[in-house]
Design goal:
Radius of gyration: 20 Å
Largest sheet: 5 strands, antiparallel
Shape: globular
Distance between the termini: 25 Å
Helix content: 10-25%
Number of strands: 14
Length: about 190
């Protein structure tokens, strides 16, 4: 498990219905975890009212930080996946349950996914959200483009924000290339 960067992720597999719950349980247990989510509009009740619900974009897949893989494996191999978390109302540690999951393995190794390889999923996650749910950037913030091949790998600084667009000055061109980009295509460079 050596040779992996702190920004690498391991792949966690679970049932479709347990995807969001596993990512949430890992986060509650103090392990940074993520799964791409979207907003699904469903009609419920007799009046068929429209209700927004979060839904996984990649059911059965979640990602956890690779530097915590030993903790993730311990949780996955326990007979009943559970973890302890501080309950501020009871002011004590309490046990919480977690849906069954496994860490993806290829042969004898657990493959790592780099942060950069997840950029396309992060952009897809932003494209699937209504504009009021999209993260808005502020002038002076460092960003990078997630799905623009001509700007891949370049870091830029937000100079101005106009609605859902941002004017970004990219440093890879000597600081002279200013581009208007849809905010849904931007990712934080931090």
């Amino acid at each position: 498990m050596s040779g992996h960067r702190a920004t690498d992720w391991c792949i966690v597999r679970t049932s479709s219905a347990g995807t969001l719950a596993v990512a949430s349980a890992l986060a509650d247990a103090g392990i940074e975890a993520w799964t791409p989510i979207g907003i699904a509009v469903k009609r419920v009740g007799k009046m068929r009212e429209r209700v927004e619900q979060t839904a996984p974009l990649m059911p059965t897949f979640a990602f956890a930080r690779y530097d915590r893989i030993a903790d993730v494996l311990a949780m996955a191999h326990s007979p009943t996946p559970s973890y302890q978390v501080w309950d501020k109302d009871q002011r004590r540690m309490v046990m919480r349950g977690c849906p069954f999951f496994r860490v993806f393995r290829h042969g004898l190794t657990y493959p790592a996914v780099s942060d950069r390889e997840l950029d396309q999923l992060r952009v897809a996650e932003q494209h699937g959200r209504p504009i009021e749910h999209v993260r808005m950037f502020t002038p002076g913030e460092a960003v990078r483009c997630g799905d623009m091949p001509s700007f891949e790998g370049l870091v830029g600084i937000i100079e101005e924000v106009q609605g859902s667009y941002a004017h970004v000055r990219f440093t890879g061109f000597g600081g002279h290339a200013r581009v208007k980009v849809n905010s849904r295509r931007l990712l934080s460079a931090a």
